[in-house]
Design goal:
The complex is a heterodimer of chains A (about 230) and B (about 400). Chain A is α/β, with parallel strands linked by helices and about 230 residues long. Chain A contains 7 helices and 10 strands. In chain A, helix 3 crosses helix 4, helix 3 runs parallel beside helix 5 and helix 5 runs parallel beside helix 6. The radius of gyration of chain A is 18 Å and the shape is globular. Chain A starts with 7 loop residues before the first strand and ends in a 6-residue tail after the last strand. Chain B folds into 2 domains: about 190 residues, no CATH class; about 180 residues, no CATH class. Chain B is elongated.
């Protein structure tokens, strides 16, 4: 791959999303254009109700747009079956949620293994990969712990290990520090920087401009419209 | 190979979820356990009872007809000539006249007055293999009215009391009889009906027994159906012959066909078994509804988990399989427990009622199939519901 050519891995063009509630139609996204290059650390900044969650769902292939084009890793995401959307999520997207979303009855190891299971990876490889990922987030000594035996920061690191397990195209983080105190939040951000430095593409959805400032690029979303945002017009 | 791995994984997750909810899983399973146990127990008990009865009846020999010739006021019983006529009837493979009475036997200096004396012919021993040691009565014994006899186990215990049996002599009706054979234990229902005397049974040539009763003619006999003929054919043919003997007099004789009796008994028991199993399967239905209820609760409870699994790449079919397997595992474990409990109940019941206990592979297969089917049917809707959950809504659920 040539170094100077733009390597766009995510391209959105005129994405709209309407929700029909009874007789009323609400236009949540009103024509989003967005391009993300490989290795970018992008923050999508917006207040609640701005449509940022809907945008995240569409980026994460959890939802499909009403109209517009969405291309991920060169593939057009449209009219896919539930099953193939699931496969795309499995391979392309590493989700990191505000509330960690770990299975409470399964160990850290089992949680990290989960996406690999759904990818039908052979057992030996799967175990190795899960171990590697937990080692990467410095939880090698906590693999058999249940989520409730871990601190919030550790739980989020398990979730990050899980998101990295499938080596996805994009890490998609939704308010990743929202449930953490400032210090642990900062540690998670450090980890994000580290991953980004390794060339990992990160898209982070947040309402917090301080958190967003960690990103190398920020776009703002307001009332369903997106704008390339400088920091000063907060 | 891939799909096997997937099923194995889903199976593992299902087991995990069942173990995680031990109490609830157990209570849910209980419905299936009770349903299957009831079906298995009832089928096994009825089958065992049926087997016992049938085997007792078949001790009399399949293809054996019992004729009771009551006779008329003009003519009692059957003469030698009549017997010869009956022997010639089409489909008759042999006839064995019998006579029975209770008499006194003397052994040594002791007298026993509750001895059953059974008169049989040599033909009887051809069709009934009852000799344990010694020999059967033969044609010349019958012809010569030989003073030989065969004794049963009870007689050996209560009369012979450990003395040598074969070759020893007892006094019957004033004559000395030599014991030439010992018969096996008579466990047949017929023996229970006719009631062997307290002091046991002695089998003598039927002519001797007839003489002891003071009757000249034979009034009861066993007729053996010849090969190639059905019992009912022979019954028809015999009826014609006996009508002839008694000039069509009413109620002069009766023919008991064990085979048809057995058949109708078998049919009745089969119907009974089906009916009882049908009633018991209502419990299975209730158990199935229990499973469905638990699975629906489980899906609701785990909405968030389902959403997460979908976000991480679980296809709808995978979620559906996981929940379906969970309900199948639950109900099949219930089914296996139910089979065991059912067999235990049947075993105890058989011991109490003193009937046969046989493990019927068909009943076990039925029980397991039932539980599997229940698991699939009642797990289907909840599993489908789980697979159709919208991941966004599911993730947002509390």
């Amino acid at each position: 791959m040539s170094e100077n050519k733009k390597d766009v891995i995510l391209r959105m063009k005129g994405i709209t999303k309407d929700y029909v509630m009874g007789a009323e139609v609400s236009h949540v996204l009103k024509g989003i254009d967005l391009e993300v290059e490989r290795g970018e650390f992008l923050a999508v900044l917006g207040p609640s109700g701005s449509g940022k969650s809907t945008l995240m769902n569409i980026i994460g292939c959890l939802d499909v747009p009403t109209s517009g084009e969405y291309e991920l890793s060169g593939k057009t995401i449209a009219h896919q079956s539930e099953a193939s959307l699931a496969q795309i999520r499995n391979k392309e997207i590493g989700f990191i949620f505000q509330s960690f979303q770990l299975l409470q009855r399964q160990s850290a190891f089992d949680n990290v293994e989960l996406p690999l299971l759904y990818a039908n990876m052979p057992e030996r490889e799967r175990r190795q990969r899960a171990r590697d990922m937990l080692t990467k987030v410095q939880l090698a000594d906590r693999m058999d712990y249940l989520p409730n035996q871990l601190s919030g920061g550790q739980q989020q690191r398990v979730a990050i290990a899980r998101a990295l397990a499938m080596n996805p195209t994009i890490l998609l983080a939704d308010e990743p520090t929202g449930a953490l105190d400032q210090k642990t939040g900062a540690q998670v951000m450090d980890l994000f920087h580290e991953l980004n430095n390794e060339g990992r593409t990160i898209i982070m959805i947040t309402h917090d401009s301080k958190i967003a400032s960690h990103a190398s690029r920020i776009v703002r979303i307001l009332d369903g419209n997106i704008s390339e945002g400088a920091l000063e017009d907060a | 190979m891939r799909s096997i791995a997937i099923i194995r994984q889903s199976f593992k997750m299902s087991l995990q979820n069942i173990v995680n909810n031990k109490m609830r899983s157990f209570l849910t399973m209980l419905g299936i356990v009770i349903g299957v146990a009831a079906v298995i127990a009832l089928i096994t008990i009825v089958q065992g009872f049926s087997d016992s009865v049938v085997s007792e009846f078949s001790d009399l020999g399949a293809g054996t007809l019992t004729v009771n010739a009551y006779g008329t006021s003009m003519k009692q019983g059957l003469t030698e000539n009549d017997l010869a006529e009956l022997e010639k009837v089409k489909g008759v493979g042999g006839i064995s006249p019998t006579a029975s009475l209770t008499s006194t036997a003397v052994f040594g200096s002791e007298a026993f007055d509750k001895v059953t004396v059974d008169g049989k012919s040599d033909i009887y021993f051809i069709h009934n293999n009852i000799i344990k040691s010694g020999r059967a009565l033969n044609a010349s014994d019958i012809e010569n009215q030989a003073h030989v006899c065969i004794v049963d186990q009870t007689f050996m215990k209560s009369v012979m009391k450990g003395h040598a049996v074969l070759g020893n002599t007892i006094l019957l009706d004033g004559y000395e009889y030599t014991i030439v054979g010992i018969r096996d234990d008579d466990t047949s229902l017929m023996a229970a009906f006719s009631g062997s005397g307290d002091d046991g049974t002695v089998i003598v040539p039927y002519k001797n027994a007839l003489r002891m009763t003071g009757n000249a003619n034979v009034s009861s006999l066993e007729v053996y159906v010849a090969e190639g003929y059905t019992s009912s054919e022979v019954v028809d043919n015999l009826s014609l012959a006996l009508d002839n003997v008694y000039n069509d007099a009413d109620n002069s004789y009766s023919i008991l066909n064990m085979e048809t009796l057995m058949q109708s008994l078998d049919t009745i028991l089969g119907m009974l078994s089906t009916m009882l199993a049908g009633i018991a399967s209502i419990a299975l239905l209730v158990g199935g509804i229990g499973i469905m209820n638990m699975m629906l609760v489980s899906v609701t409870e785990r909405t968030k988990e389902i959403g997460l699994r979908k976000a991480l790449g679980a296809e709808p079919s995978r979620i559906q399989m996981q929940f379906l397997l969970e309900s199948i595992v639950l109900s099949v474990i219930g089914g296996i427990l139910g089979v065991l409990v059912g067999l235990l109940i049947a075993y105890v019941a058989a011991a109490i009622m003193d009937t046969a206990f046989g493990i019927s592979p068909g009943a076990i297969l039925l029980g397991l199939t039932f539980s599997l089917v229940v698991g699939v049917i009642f797990g289907w809707a909840p599993a489908r519901r789980a697979s159709r959950l919208n991941p966004i809504d599911a993730l947002r659920a509390d």
